[in-house]
Each structure stands twice: as C-alpha cells, then as structure tokens.
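TL;DR need structure tokens for one chain.
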Amino acid sequence: MNEVRRSPVFGKRKEPHTVIIARGDHIRHFTVRPWLAALVGSALCAIAIGYLGATSYLVLRDDLIGAASAHQARTHQAYEDRIAALRAQVDRITSRQLLDQRLMEERVGELMERQAQLARRQGRLAPVLERVRGETPPVPTPRPQIRADAAAAEAAEPTASPRAGTPPAALSAYAATAQASVPWPLRSGHAPSAADEADRLFVAINRSLSSIESEQLARIETLSQNADTAADTIAGALEQAGLSVEIEAKDGTGRGGPLLALGRDLPFESRVQELDETLARLETLKSEARRLPIAHPVPGAALTSRFGVRRDPLIGTPAHHSGLDFRAATGHPVRAAGAGTVVTAGWNGGYGRMVEIRHADGLTTRYAHMSKITVRKGQEVGPGTVIGKVGSSGRSTGPHLHYEVRRSGEAVDPAPYIRAGRKIAGLI
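>> reply
TL;DR here they are.
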C-alpha cells in the first residue's frame, strides 16, 4: 500500500509505486519512478510512430517512385525536345547559308559572264570606232568592288570553297557575313543573310552593266545615224552637182554578209555590222569625193568671170569663157581641186603656164596663167596640194587664175562642183 505522507511545506506527497513479484519463496519488488514511467511511455510511442511511418512508406513507396520517375521522364523529354528544336533551327540556318552562298556564286558568275560579254563587245566595237574620226575613249567595263569587311572575314575563316572558274576576288566581295550577324535561335530578331545584304549590290551592278550596254547600243546607233547622214549628205551634194559615185558590191550577186549565229549578242552584232557597213559606205564616198574636183583652187579669192558667154577682155567681142577666173595677187598659191595625176605641167599657148590634172569619173582640171609651176608631169597630188603660183602669163590682162573643169575633154561649169565641195568640206 502506498502511504501518504505529509510535508510540512508542500502538503501531501504520493509515494512511488512499488511492484512486488512473488514466485514461490522468492519475492521481488520494483519501485516505479515517475520519470521512468514517462521514459518507457515515450519509447513505446516513438516505436509506434516509427512502425506506423515505416508501414505507410512501404504502402505508398510505389506511388512515390512512379511519380518521381514520371517527372524525371517528362523533364528529360522536354529537354530532348528543346535540343531537337535547336538542332532543327541550326540545320535550317546552315541550309539557308549554303543556299545563300550558292545563290551568290551563281550571281557572281552571271556578273562575270556579263562583264566578259561587255569586254567582247568592246573588242568588237573598238576596230569600228577606230574608223570614226575623232574617236572617243572606250567605255570602261566596271568590275564588282570588293568589300573590305567581307574580304577580312574570308581571310579569317573562309565560308565556302570558290566555284571553279569564278575569280576568288569576286567571291570574297560577296562572302558570307560574320558569325556575330548570323541569326541564332537564342537571339532575338533576325539579321539579314549574306544574300539579302548582297542583293542591293547585285541590283546596282546589274543596273550599271545594263546602263553600259544601253550606252554601247545608243553610241552605235548615234554613230550609225551620223555616218549615214554624212554619207547621204555627200552623195546628195555630189549628185546635185552632177557627180555620181557608185558603190559597187564586193560580191557579184549583190547579197551577202557575215554569218551570225543566233544568240543573245545578235542585236548587238547586227547593229555593229550595220555601223560597219555604213562607215564603209561613208569611207568610200569620202575617198571618191576626194578624187573629184570639188575643192576651191584659190580659197578666198574673188570671182571675176563666170563660165559661159562673156565679152572678151582683150578685143571686146562676145566669146565663150570655158572656166572661172579668180582674182588674186601674184604669187598666191594655187591648190589642186581634187586628188589626181598631173598630165600637163608647162607652157600651153594662151593658157600660159598651165597645169592639167586628171581626176576620177573622166574629169580633168586646168589651172592657167600661173607665174610658177611647182609640180611635174606624172606626179600624184591630193586635194589642196599646192601646184603653182598665181600670175598673168599667156593671154591675160592681169594676175588671176583661170580654172577649168572638163568632162571627157569638154568644158563644163566648175561652179556646181565648188558649191558641192563647200557643202561637204567638213565631212571629207
């Protein structure tokens, strides 16, 4: 039995419980202290809680492991999807760069071909232009300019091997842009590709080449029109003066021309051929005109007597004057009216000192009353060649030049020839 004791200070106090165990003659007793009971109870509670926790873990373990595995699988799949998307974008960018590079190489090849075509045209046109008097310098053929930044980028890291047959300088001019300017999936915005950046340059160069082609064609057209106009003017003036210049065909049939294969240069070649033929006609007309007596024998001299019937200056009766008289001072130079051969150079009766020149188309000219002769028989002379000096030899009343033009030995009026020569003087 537990005894209840009283404390003079705290009042009643319970005695600790005592457990007595009797077994036969043996009797044992244990005193159960309160703290020991609390310790044993706490231990039992901890064991119970641990048992319950372990049981719950074992029951719910499969669900937790499954949820963790599913979360890890979802995370891995999302990561793989992201990697695949990035790889796809990188592949698209690489493909675009390759396409841009190929496109640029093709465009550069086209530009080089057009440049070579312009060079061929210029080579074809140069000999024709040399035939034109007052030839202008040839039109320069532009070359694509090399960008300094692209050339430096190519020197540091070439983006692609040059295409066979394409100059490296041309490819470096349109090299791909630097790596920093390439659009990247993780980078916001889209920088223009190399082809996009070069488009404006290609367009500008194409316009420049087209402008040069147009200028070449326009120049050919202008030269052809000018040459044709000059040829028509010369032919018209000579025809008006009664001088016909026949331009014979080089072949017997009157037909022909160069063999021109069909191609993109056919319009240019046909125009150059037309210009060449027009210039050939003009040169023939010029050459023939120089052989005709159309120049003035004493430029600037006054006309004192015309061709035809007049009063004879010595006897005063009407007489036929077979030429033109030009008053000039003694010693004034007398010039050949056209290219030809001297057939007479000496004294000839009433003509005094006379020179006779045979020209083309059965024409001859006579220069009479000269004070001095400076050519000899059989000499070839050109238009404007000095053949003597003005004088008053023979049947003459004073210093002047008597000038005659004869066709097949018959005297004709020289005035129309001189007028024709004055009209086309700047053309021949």
